[in-house]
Write a structure and sequence with these properties.
about 250 residues; alpha+beta; T-fold; eight-stranded antiparallel β-sheet; four-stranded antiparallel β-sheet; 12 strands; about 30% helix; globular
């Protein structure tokens, strides 16, 4: 779950989509940077309003959905996005709002796939990707010497993927740990978002990297994990790291 301000979204420069059209959609706290085969701003805005509406209406009935920092059970009729957030949170052992940014990114992205064959939806560092060719996303890790020197290559083929990032040292996301960056790769953006938060909560120093990765491996539907703390990096699973050329000045 990430709530970085628009001014702090410099990490968006680290996403490298070739041949796609970029546009931004912002509705209240939701601020999406989207790349697609064509400009779909109006369609994306309607999708954001739709899915935010589903979540907000459910919270009006069940305020605990917003407030809880631990998993809750969704009872009675509930929108699919709410159910997915709750399931992801339960798998990771966190509150359902830890999955909100990833869930919105994925649902908006899947909605756009009726109009475009390729799409990247980034929501505060949480990204839904479906592209023909792999794309490289730069990893911003605050004051770590590894920050912006490493990229994560993802995408390509017909299968969408979610890549979500949590940090205990930058941004305004709720994290109980001190990792400079925790990235999670999953077929589900909601799972990746909740897992990144849960894994990040377990990292207070470099010594915690191995145990945090072991915890992440135990979360269902997680394909890969990257953790950066200072000058140390740990990774597991389907993770392809590539060096980035950093411009001086």
């Amino acid at each position: 779950m990430t709530t970085a301000s628009a001014q702090s979204r410099f990490y968006r420069r680290g996403v490298r989509p070739a041949g796609l059209t970029g546009f931004r959609v912002a509705v209240q706290e939701t601020d999406l940077q989207i790349h697609a085969d064509l400009d779909l701003t109006a369609v994306a805005r309607e999708l954001v309003l739709q899915y935010r509406g589903f979540i907000e209406t459910y919270i009006e009935r069940q305020p605990i959905f917003r407030e809880s920092l631990t998993p809750i059970r969704v009872t009675g009729p509930a929108p699919l996005i709410v159910q997915e957030m709750a399931r992801a949170a339960a798998a990771a052992g966190v509150g359902p709002m830890a999955a909100v940014a990833g869930a919105i990114a994925e649902h908006v992205g899947r909605g756009l796939l009726s109009r475009t064959k390729q799409v990247i939806v980034e929501n505060g560092g949480d990204v839904f990707v479906r592209t023909r060719q792999p794309v490289v996303m730069g990893i911003y890790a605050g004051s770590s010497p590894l920050s912006r020197h490493i990229g994560l290559r993802v995408g390509g083929g017909d299968t969408p993927i979610g890549v979500c990032t949590s940090s205990g040292t930058i941004g305004h996301s709720l994290s109980l740990g001190a990792a400079d960056a925790v990235g999670v790769v999953s077929p589900s953006c909601a799972v990746a978002d909740a897992a990144a938060t849960a894994i990040g909560n377990r990292v207070n120093s470099k010594a915690d990297i191995s145990e945090a990765i072991a915890f992440g491996r135990g979360i269902g539907n997680v394909d890969g994990v990257v953790i950066i703390v200072g000058d140390r990096i740990g990774c597991w699973g389907i993770v392809e790291l590539v060096p980035l050329k950093v411009k001086k000045g």
